[in-house]
Amino acid sequence: MPGGISEIGTYHSDACMRLVAACHRAEIPLRHLRNIAGMKWDGPAGECASRIHGLIGGGFIAVLLGPSGVGKTQIAASLMAHQVFTELGKQVGDRRRQPLYTTANQLFRKLREAFAPESKCSEDEIFQIFGDPALLIIDELHELKLSEFESRRLTELIDQRYHSQKDTVLIANTGRAELGKQLGPSVVSRIHEIGEVVDCSEWPSFRVSRVPRLLEIGGGK
To answer: Contact, 186 vs 160, CB < 8 A?
Structure first.
């Protein structure tokens, strides 16, 4: 398992507080942040996390695909927590050394808000917020049907991060072909060059395995 949150008990309380504050600044989802220390990383999900963790710092693009509940966001949260942990105390406040989590909807909502008359930030300034972090997680890509503007800006963002050798993780509940069509040939080409696609459907849902199945999705009995 990537180190970080599970190790904070060995540090002074002030360091723990700074670590937790840094995790919140990175916008790691609270539920996933709380789950990190208790996760079991000895199965395929742990192997996936370790494999992607080994790529950190190389300017990679990783794609996590699979249905809900298999731990895609949890894996990403563990990577972010490790990044926060290793950078703790280094150039505090420099977002270029820190990770950032966003959903695709949040990303493009913030970009669209830049066009509002009352906006205090330009589109380029908001765009740079997502271009700067050492590790960027973009979750729930399947929730968007990208417009021409969104498709162009996503390509520009990933290209900018590619040239700056920044690490990017994309997460979606779709298959390879569908996501490839959504991302477009330029981004797919980048992934082929420096990335990795992980099919997280190869192991069962953590949610369903913990409790009896309460509902069937898709019309099952």
So the answer is: no
